[in-house]
Amino acid sequence: MLGHMTYILAQLNIARMLEPLDSPVMADFVNALERINALAEASEGFIWRLIGEGDDATSLRPFDDDRVIVNMSSWQSIADLKNYVYKTAHAEFLKRRLEWFERVRDAMVVLWWIPQGHTPTVAEAKERLEHLRLHGPTEYAFTLPKTFEAPEVQSTP
Known about the structure:
The protein is of the alpha+beta class. It has a single domain (3-155), classed as Alpha-Beta Plaits, CATH 3.30.70.100. Helix content is 29%, strand content 21%. The protein is built from four helices and six strands; from the N terminus they run E-E-H-E-E-H-H-E-H-E. It has helices at residues 27-42, 78-87, 90-95, 122-135, and strands at residues 3-4, 7-16, 46-49, 68-75, 109-115, 154-155. The protein has a four-stranded antiparallel β-sheet, sandwiched between helices. The chain has a two-stranded antiparallel ribbon with strand order 1-6. The mean pLDDT is 92.
């Protein structure tokens, strides 16, 4: 009998802050974190998010730049992630991102498919982001504007 492996969506987004987190420039962003993270967790299709010290990932600095913060999560589908990003209160903060973060040319968001039950690592996410930056959107690493369907993998017992 053949079984079907189910995939879920992983995402990493990074941003380079204009000022340190404790600066007045970043206050609105920092003050909204708990509410926006709770909104994500309550959203349809949400599975997991990266958490460092406290209840968010702002304490984590996996890149060689102290101003770069990360957010990682996993979702049931692209549609669920898009709904959260663009059709909830999160969208208002997305519109304000240049108040807090530098405009950059490099890709800062990457998506990829993972087997259900797998928790993506920061190292895995960094590698996917680098692949996206080098090769553009592919089935291996892609973006919300240019997505790819989950792999269809048949496994034998």
